[in-house]
Design a protein that fits this description.
single chain; alpha+beta; four-stranded mixed β-sheet
Length: 342
């Protein structure tokens, strides 16, 4: 019975994934109305040369449908949810995480100035387009007092609850569905982590409760929903580290790295989240200008071969890699490199 139920669950998840991929690989407008995953082939010619299927030991994975050459752009993806690093709110776009220009333009002015009653932290946008697209969550967010919630996250150096906050605002505005992350793999949570989540959830719910929202619009905001979403974000979120284009940006990135805040923010995607880990990967993910991810091949890949990326700094030694992956992602790596204890 359990095996049959599990198989049925996998089939439903696979069908749902196919439906979402068909939607996202169809006609993609130049300026999407919201942050949603888009899997597109290089230069937009045809579907991406990949498929998602079950692996023998690592759940779902991404496989090549044809030969892929080293250096080839496999596909790109826009985030389902993204959020800038709290310490860089005045340096990156609040929507797409693009670095802001040194000379602030009128578009980059603080939004809270438009609403003096707002107690939201000042934020900036890199373009009028990003300002417009942010309305899906910011119209809800800017009318609430986030002081207690943000202070809680700041004192404990928490970043993922901020992504749940943004997602909740998107749902309340109608820009996202309640179950948009359900297809992603959840993390296994320790009892201590669950207790911390309860505190964060209560602060989040209290903030919304104090706002002018109808009770029926907040029925989704339960402790179970919060834990479910946060568990998925914890294991599937990517640190967005933009490629430095200038010497000044390189120095800024180096300084941020020393300060343990090298990432401009964090984002969660659909398709990139299905790539499994390998300490000697054949593909990697990069961010050139903003939170739009690009997956590229590191070597020649044959048709049918699984594409894998590295979740961590692959230059560290074997014991460190095993510890980081076990504590951060909940698995022991058995790739060829780790099997040889390289």
């Amino acid at each position: 019975m359990f095996a049959a139920g599990a198989a049925l669950s996998r089939r439903r998840a696979s069908l749902e994934l196919l439906r979402q991929l068909r939607r996202t690989t169809s006609v993609a407008p130049p300026q999407p109305p919201s942050l949603s995953t888009v899997a597109a082939a290089a230069e937009g010619i045809g579907p991406p040369p990949i498929r998602v299927s079950l692996t023998e030991s690592a759940g779902r994975g991404v496989f090549a449908t044809r030969g892929i050459a080293a250096g080839e752009l496999i596909h790109s993806a826009q985030p389902l949810v993204a959020h800038p690093s709290p310490s860089l709110l005045d340096k990156v776009c609040y929507y797409c995480l693009r670095r802001l220009q040194k000379e602030a333009s009128p578009i980059g002015t603080s939004i809270p100035g438009e609403n003096e009653s707002s107690k939201t932290t000042a934020c900036y946008f890199c373009s009028e387009s990003c300002r417009e697209q942010s309305k899906g969550f910011y119209e809800v967010e800017k009318g609430l007092d986030w002081t207690l919630f943000d202070d809680h996250c700041s004192m404990r150096r928490l970043k993922y609850p901020l992504m749940v906050k943004r997602l909740a605002c998107m749902i309340l505005s109608g820009a996202a569905s309640v179950d948009c992350l359900d297809i992603l793999q959840p993390a296994s949570l320790h009892p201590e982590t669950l207790l911390e989540m309860e505190d964060e959830f209560q602060l989040l719910k209290d903030t919304f409760t104090k706002g002018q929202f109808k009770n029926d619009s907040m029925t989704f905001l339960t402790k179970e929903w919060y834990i479910n979403v946060l568990a998925r974000i914890r294991i599937n979120a990517f640190r967005i580290e933009l490629v430095a284009k200038t010497y000044e940006e390189m120095l800024t990135s180096a300084a941020a790295f020393i300060a343990a805040d090298a990432a401009v923010g964090n984002a969660i995607y659909m398709l990139p989240s299905f790539y499994n880990h390998d300490c000697d990967p054949n593909a990697h993910i990069i961010w050139l200008e903003n939170a739009n991810a690009k997956l590229k091949a590191l070597c020649n890949i044959e048709a049918g071969e699984e594409l894998r990326i590295c979740y961590i700094d692959a230059s560290v030694e074997f014991e460190a890699r095993q510890k980081i992956l076990a504590e951060g992602f909940g698995f022991q790596c058995g790739c060829l490199r780790c099997s040889s204890r390289d």
